[in-house]
Amino acid sequence: MALTKKKTMLIAAAIVVLGVVVYFVWLKPEPVENVSIDSFGPTGQAQATFLTLAAQLQPIAFNASILEDPRFVALVDIKTAILPEATGRTDPFAPLAGVKKEQ
Fold first, then answer.
1. How far apart are CA 11 and CA 7, in angstroms?
2. Please, are residues 11 and 19 in contact by the beta-carbon 8 Å criterion?
């Protein structure tokens, strides 16, 4: 008894659907509740160390006096004009008109 291509595809699709159903019914792990750690404080040594080190960081300050320096103010923006180009062919991969195709 020879299976036709259509029957083979139908059997393969049924196996895939059955596999998905088995995964979602029996094998899928239970969802974990989302608990906010912020309300309970640090839960481990690594998190406590991280929070201690983060509290010791100094705020970053940027010295804006460089923007008033005469060398910075003297900088000139060099603009390059962009000339418009003619548009090419609508389909650049289409065969060229009047050119024979090699065999």
1. 6
2. no
Helical H segments across the chain, by residue range: 5-22, 45-56, 70-73
> What count of other Cβ atoms lies within 10 Å of the Cβ of residue 42?
14
Residue 47, pLDDT score: 86
User: What is the distance of C-alpha 34 from the center of its chain?
Assistant: 24
- Residue 51 contacts by C-beta under 8 Å, 6 or more apart in sequence? 42
Three-class DSSP category at 63: coil
Residue 98's SS3 state is coil
Q: Do 25 and 18 contact (CB within 8 A), yes or no? A: no
Residues in the chain: 103
* Low-confidence stretches of the chain (pLDDT beneath 70): 1-2, 28, 32-42, 103
CA dist., res. 43 & res. 48, Å (int): 7
Q: Which of 31, 33, 51 is nearest to 41 (CA)?
A: 51
Global pTM value: 0.29
